[in-house]
Write a structure and sequence with these properties.
This protein is 63% helix and 0% strand. It has helices at 8-20, 32-130, 134-142, 173-181, 194-204.
């Protein structure tokens, strides 16, 4: 098993010197000497951070090792169950899709059969109207049944249901971009590839030439303790 996990009292005792120490005020920089003093203060701060981080790691390392060991023991069983779950869900989706295909085919067949019947009825109605038998024509028209709707005979299992989640699939990026450029759809429908643009800015700096984009320099202060 991994090393002993420290108690809260042991952590508090190890932290006591860092918590109790009084840090110098942040220096104000008005001239070169102040700048040098601030640089030394920054390096001292980094050294303190490194020391405290190292102390933290010595105490959290046993926790991390214990967690990794436990996760490694659970992983095989969880992975097996996860794969089983995926396989069962896939089988259910395939079965449901087959039922839906069969339902649509049957519904389309019944609707076509009805459409053929309606065509014949409408022709008969027209002939009745031509003969002045409007009452019969009206009655025959009202006898036309509504379009058939087929409901799939799907088994029901308590706690198991199917949920539809609609997603947008881009099939032509150029067409979408053109629609945005023409104002046909909102600008928010497309997003820049920020990571790719940042890579170009780092590589080309001020030489970056991308329409609508400029390279911006962001300086940071780096200190080594």
């Amino acid at each position: 098993m991994p090393n002993k996990i420290p108690t809260e009292a042991e952590v508090q005792k190890a932290l006591a010197p860092y918590v109790a120490e009084t840090l110098p005020e942040v220096p104000q920089i008005d001239d070169g000497d102040d700048y040098i003093a601030a640089g030394e203060a920054l390096k001292d701060t980094k050294r303190r951070q490194h020391a405290l981080d190292e102390l933290k790691r010595t105490m959290t390392r046993p926790l991390d090792e214990t967690k990794r060991a436990i996760l490694a023991l659970f992983d095989p069983a969880l992975t097996r169950l996860s794969r089983r779950e995926t396989a069962i869900k896939t089988a259910i989706k395939v079965y449901n899709a087959r039922l839906e295909d069969e339902r649509r085919l049957l519904e389309a067949k019944l609707r076509q059969e009805q459409a053929d019947k309606v065509t014949k009825i409408e022709a008969k109605v027209e002939r009745l109207r031509e003969r002045g038998r409007d009452g019969e024509a009206e009655a025959l028209t009202e006898s036309i049944p509504p379009l058939p709707i087929v409901v799939a005979d799907k088994p029901v299992v308590s706690g198991i249901s199917e949920r539809s989640v609609w997603k947008a699939e881009i099939i032509d990026m150029l067409e979408l971009a053109a629609a945005v450029a023409l104002g046909q759809v909102p600008l928010g429908y497309i997003l820049p590839n920020q990571s790719a643009l940042d890579a170009q800015a780092r590589s080309l700096k001020n030489g970056m030439r991308v329409p609508g984009v400029r390279a911006v320099e962001d300086k940071t202060v780096v200190a080594r303790g």
